[in-house]
Amino acid sequence: MAFRALLYRRPTEPRTLAVKIGSAIYAVQLRRHRRARRYTLRIHPSRREAILTMPPRGNLSDAREFAERHGAWIAARLGGLPKAVPFAAGTLLPLRHVSHKIVHRAGERGTVWAETRDSGEKILCVAGGVEHVERRVLDFLKREARRELTRVSNHYAEMLGVKVTRISIRDQSSRWGSCTSAGALSFSWRLILAPPYVLDYLAAHEVAHLVEMNHSPRFWRVVGRICPHTERAKKWLDVHGNNLHRYGVRD
Fold it and tell me: Mind telling me which Pfam families this protein's record contains (predicted)?
């Protein structure tokens, strides 16, 4: 094994620290990263946990001291997360930014489909046992996100004369999308809960990186040329983006 790998591999190291902050105890997840130069903290909004990244030579004593020193920050950020909305019967879900009520249809065949009632109410029907509702709704949203993002990404790739080689759908916490120089794009499935113009912008943003692999003025000119609602979408994400992380999770 390479010496560098030995610096950050700790097979018996705990994955979680229990840190007391005031009268509460918080579970802080530990991550060791070979390129980290210092201890850092971040909040994973959908998993609702604090994550402490350690440098290769870091130790548990210093990690605990760092977490305790930033205890007020951890408590404030976790306490400030929007109320969780689990996928369950009766939940209102903003599919493409249009409110849909999850309705359990135990006696019907199929998986998940959308309907509009005579009253005009939009519903998301979920067949099968109640224990499968959460997973089936999530799978449905991922499929819808993949379909929409594949369609618009390929549209923008054709406009720019570039090629998308692969599209991955994930639950990313720190970014809505990413791109590699080989043409592989990755997006958060939660974009299917945003207004369509926001999803559209994120696709244009990542495809534009296949022309300019940076965030230079030239890159933003490419994005603005193919996506006229760039500024509107960026403002929506700044104001409402964090709210998307509350769906499909439990407090």
Answer: YgjP-like
